[in-house]
Amino acid sequence: MYRVLKATQLADRVFQMWVFAPHVAHHAKAGQFLIVRVNESGERIPLTISAVDGDAVRIIFMAVGKTTELLSSLRPGDMIRDIAGPLGRPSEIATYGTCVIIGGGVGIASAPIIAKAAKAAGNYVIGIIGARNSGLLILEDEMRACCDELFVATDDGSKGIHGFAADVLKAEMEKRTIDCVWIIGPAIMMKVTSGVTKKSNIKTFVSLNPIMVDGTGMCGSCRVQVAGRTRFACVDGPEFDAHQVDFDLLMQRGRTYQPEEHEALEHYHEHSCSCKGGI
Amino acid sequence: MEDRAAGQRVHDFFEVSSGLSPDEALFEAERCLQCKKPKCVNGCPVGIDIPSFIAEIALGNFRKAAEIIKADNMLPAICGRVCPQETQCEGQCVLSGKEKPISIGSLERFIADWERAHGTSVPDSQPPTGRHVAVIGSGPAGLTAAAELSRLGHRVTLFESLHEAGGVLMYGIPEFRLPKEIVRAEVEQVLAMGVEIRLNHLAGRSITVPELMKFDAVFLATGAGLPNFMGIPGEQLNGVYSANEFLTRVNFMHADQFPGYDTPVKRGSRVVVAGGGNVAMDAARVARRLGAKVTLVYRRREEDLPARANEVIHAREEGVEILSCANPIRIVGDTGVTGVECVRMEMCALDETGRPSARPLDGMTFTIDADMFIEAVGQGPNPLLISEIKGIEREKAGNVAVDAEGRTSVPRIFAAGDVATGAATVILAMGTAKEAARSIDRMLKEE
Ligand SMILES: Cc1cc2nc3c(=O)[nH]c(=O)nc-3n(C[C@H](O)[C@H](O)[C@H](O)COP(=O)(O)OP(=O)(O)OC[C@H]3O[C@@H](n4cnc5c(N)ncnc54)[C@H](O)[C@@H]3O)c2cc1C
Ligand SMILES: Cc1cc2nc3c(=O)[nH]c(=O)nc-3n(C[C@H](O)[C@H](O)[C@H](O)COP(=O)(O)OP(=O)(O)OC[C@H]3O[C@@H](n4cnc5c(N)ncnc54)[C@H](O)[C@@H]3O)c2cc1C
Ligand code: FES
């Protein structure tokens, strides 16, 4: 059992939580994730490790379905049944020169830890964070503190630059040499944004979010196609060379359980009246 | 002992067979000829003193029978249910030719179940040696090693990446063949010996190799959990599963009880399973229980099916259609599966295992309508931890190379079970684990 230490809401439906998990905290590196199973009947879901402090790790998640909603109902002192990690390969941090770290939506959760690691490796770090609107923007201050420069963009122009992260990236690429880019966000956003660096052949990483079960390489649920080869995102990734990823397939497989996800949430809402969390 | 009617059991996950009653056990035990040179013992990878325990049953001394079995096998309730007895002890029984061989597996199961119902005792351990061994993986190999090392007085910490111990016994073999309560009870017995367990710890990540090397010895029992894919077109379609994923979702995450449990699984109406081993049979029978019409496609002849004989019989009784001498070559569909294209296979010369090699017959293809496809075409060792250990030798198939005592090429690191042998059986995992545990003990006591 793993204790929730802090729980706060960061934005519309976006929550931040610190949990006590020394085995994860002591070994976690930028780009890795953990797997949570909230209770005995729970699903195992992957979440990025977005910060580490002593024995605790931070997760940031958007309440989009049954498990993330249940998680968002937990308060400090509550227990999470299982936390496994750190999982996946760490980001390939090296001294590239100028790096751009792009976070889109809840994907911004992964950005600061990568930005810090890139900075510590001697890179000049530019951050770009984007969201649909200002109400969904998270971690702006934290990113400002660890990047050399930070750009903020919203789809509706309610904050920062009116447009997509891809537009900001394009503009910066015209102004200077960029050596390496990380893009973390929804699959469609990663697909579009990595298209921008493809022509100039800039090294670009994306962090893929396929459906996982164990997260240790024993089921193949998380398989993705990279450079025409089947790879398991949980052990070979989650970061891959963006220009080699089959994003359409990633999105197609992500929809496998759409009807069931809907059913699970309905079931949860029906049963989560007075009894807390419907557990 | 009777199997529940197939028409009834395809609708639930309760155990297929109820096991022997005490009277039936006595009757069966009395059939044993008590051979002077018992061949059955040679057929048992852990060398249980079979005639002696059967003699105790015949006398009604069930507790004594249990002691005899447990001197060589800590997990009898499991082995009595899942061992391929027909190729092991029962295959060697001298009664095989004349009448039926003694049902040694059923007797083993009977005794283990009787003991569990009447209270088990924790075996005595030797005085603490002050040495500390890390065991990685809590499948049959890891559990056996942990119990044996603990009995020999060593402190044991068992690391398991999943949220519950048991390995394939928990996530792979379905409830109707091996009730999870039994696995839990046997795991509890191992823990009661003082073994500490760390769940949710993926060795190589949650604890690094240098950290592991601080233990006096490291025991790798990480199994062969990495599923092979066939590499045929259409494998990325929604509704294509590895048997490991399908079985894990149902057995370990209880997707059959969705939405009561949160993990979903697709419920196909027509499912094709590729493969012919225990894993394929389990996947097929689970799919049947989820309501599908199931066709199992196997590339060789029926008599070559590597699954336990009993599982093939049960699968067929439950309405699994077995299509032999055929192999899937393409999964048809747009985003989901709509069919599986197969090719007829021709049988060629017999290989050293006595099975024919199979070759596709050009142009002889046909398509089976299906909305789900499950691949059960073998597993290999998960390279995650092994690849982090510098200098550890591996064989071609990826399994860790060990000598007869379970030593790897790296000092202080031992390995047993599927990670060393390649995907094999529960009893072999236990047998090799016991050897390797004893060799660790010798090393630690010589120092
Ligand atoms: C490596 C990795 C890191 C991730 N990091 C974060 C993060 O930091 N913050 C965050 O909010 N989300 C993250 N996700 C996505 C997160 O796992 C899903 O949002 C979560 O599983 C949804 O579960 P649910 O029951 O609440 O929603 P559901 O209703 O079950 O599903 C909603 C959406 O989540 C996806 N999803 C469902 N189950 C899984 C699963 N077992 N594994 C992966 N995706 C699934 C579905 O495709 C669907 O689109 C990450 C995913 C991966 C693979
Ligand atoms: C579906 C199925 C049905 C089967 N049916 C039969 C049968 O009827 N009869 C029979 O005799 N055999 C059967 N087998 C084979 C048998 O189950 C295996 O041979 C046996 O379980 C191997 O035991 P093991 O301890 O070596 O590995 P496993 O049982 O695979 O256990 C390995 C454990 O190690 C854990 N692990 C892996 N890597 C790490 C890591 N880095 N850190 C921490 N933990 C880790 C895994 O999570 C797992 O729990 C079947 C196998 C399957 C898959
Ligand atoms: S999640 Fe099972 S192999 Fe990656």
Structure write-up:
The complex is a heterodimer of chains A (279) and B (447). Chain A has helices at 22-25, 66-72, 111-120, 140-146, 165-175, 187-198, 233-236, 247-254, 258-271, and strands at residues 2-11, 14-20, 33-37, 44-48, 51-53, 56-62, 79-80, 82-87, 98-104, 124-131, 149-154, 161-162, 180-184, 203-207, 223-226, 229-232, 239-241. With 279 residues, chain A is α/β, with parallel strands linked by helices. Chain A folds into two domains: 2-87, Beta Barrel (Elongation Factor Tu (Ef-tu), domain 3), CATH 2.40.30.10; 98-254, 3-Layer(aba) Sandwich (Rossmann fold), CATH 3.40.50. In chain A, helix 5 (165-175) runs parallel beside helix 6 and helix 6 (187-198) packs antiparallel against helix 8. With 447 residues, chain B is of the alpha/beta class. Chain B has three domains: 6-118, Fumarate Reductase Iron-sulfur Protein, Chain B, domain 2, CATH 1.10.1060; 132-225 and 380-446, FAD/NAD(P)-binding domain, CATH 3.50.50.60; 229-375, FAD/NAD(P)-binding domain (3-Layer(bba) Sandwich), CATH 3.50.50.60. Chain B is 36% helix and 18% strand. Chain B is built from 19 helices and 15 strands. A five-stranded parallel beta sheet of chain B has the order 3-2-1-4-15, covered by helices on one side. In chain B, helix 16 links the parallel strand 8 (293-297) and strand 9 (321-323). In chain B, helix 5 packs across helix 9, helix 6 packs antiparallel against helix 9 (104-118) and helix 10 (140-151) packs parallel to helix 19 (426-446). The radius of gyration of chain B is 22 Å and the shape is globular. The termini of chain B are far apart. The interface between A and B is large, with 41 and 41 residues. Bound molecules: flavin-adenine dinucleotide (2 copies) and FE2/S2 (inorganic) cluster (FES). Residues 33, 43, 45-48, 60-62, 64-68, 106, 109, 209-212, 238, 254, 261, 265 of chain A line the site of one flavin-adenine dinucleotide.
